[in-house]
Write a structure and sequence with these properties.
- There is one protein chain.
- About 30% of the residues lie in helices and about 20% in strands.
- It is an alpha/beta fold.
Length: about 260
């Protein structure tokens, strides 16, 4: 991807490094309409399942667990995928501890929701650990990706939870070669892996006039460590969402 060579700092185009929203009713659609912006979406990273033969090398016997910790829809999908590939029958007595209500409801894709023992937090693992602590006698499986935050294992260790980590899927860089000659005024990132993908695809990327937006402290740190200029950062006081932070910036630079 080439950096913008336009000396005009007004924002006209934005690339969001996430999947396109399923409906047109999104904060990005509102932003595009309000300021006459071109907003595109493209995943810079994607998830691939760990093959069953690789999973076997982890020496994890799923049948030994009576509870599973699910922190995302990816975790749900790949837990049931690996069970199917390994021909493991998930018992009706399995307990599911989900990071949020939406993740819990997503289980309906695989189980009869009202007939299972399903627990969920409000959105953070700090909420969920309080529920998990009430079931300390259980043996937990924690499905995760190869690139994951260490805060969840640290919290589980702190509370002496009996758990085993199982890497069931991997975060990999997407092929972005078709974007080589495409220019955007703002690139929006949500994870350090997105920055990794940018430079894996475009090792000679120069920022120049392109603005970089980052969500979260880890992403902001990755931007700066890559030698890029961080122009837009969220969440911050007054701009808790990425779209709010972008709008605040656009209002400033698009003034006539």
């Amino acid at each position: 991807m080439a950096a913008s060579k336009n000396n005009d700092l007004k924002v006209k185009s934005i690339l969001v490094t996430q999947p396109k929203p399923e409906t047109d009713k999104s904060p990005y659609a509102d932003l595009a309409k309000k300021y006459s912006l071109k907003v595109d979406f493209r995943e810079f990273i994607h998830v691939e399942g760990v093959p069953s033969q690789d999973f076997r090398q982890q020496r994890v016997n799923i049948s030994e667990f009576n509870a599973v910790i699910l922190t995302s829809r990816n975790a749900v999908d790949h837990f049931f995928r690996i069970c199917s590939e390994m021909r493991v029958t998930v018992p009706d007595t399995m307990k599911y501890f989900c990071i949020s209500e939406s993740t819990a409801y997503y289980l309906q894709k695989y189980v009869q929701y009202r007939k299972r023992k399903i627990f969920h937090g409000k959105a953070t693992f700090s909420d969920l650990i309080e529920i998990i602590r009430k079931h300390k006698e259980d043996k937990f499986l924690y499905p995760c990706t190869d690139v994951h935050k260490e805060d969840i294992p640290e919290i589980l260790d702190k509370h002496k939870i009996n758990y085993t980590k199982a890497v069931l899927y991997r975060t990999v860089c997407s092929d972005l070669s078709d974007l080589a000659d495409v220019y955007y005024d703002i690139l929006v990132f949500f994870s350090p892996s997105g920055i990794t993908s940018l430079f894996k695809n475009f090792p000679k990327f120069k920022q120049n006039k392109t603005r970089i937006a980052a969500f979260g402290p880890a992403t902001a740190k990755a931007v700066e460590e890559a030698g890029l200029r961080l122009d837009i950062h969220a969440p911050k006081q007054g701009t808790p969402s990425m779209t709010m932070a972008i709008e605040e910036y656009v209002k400033q630079v698009n003034k006539k």
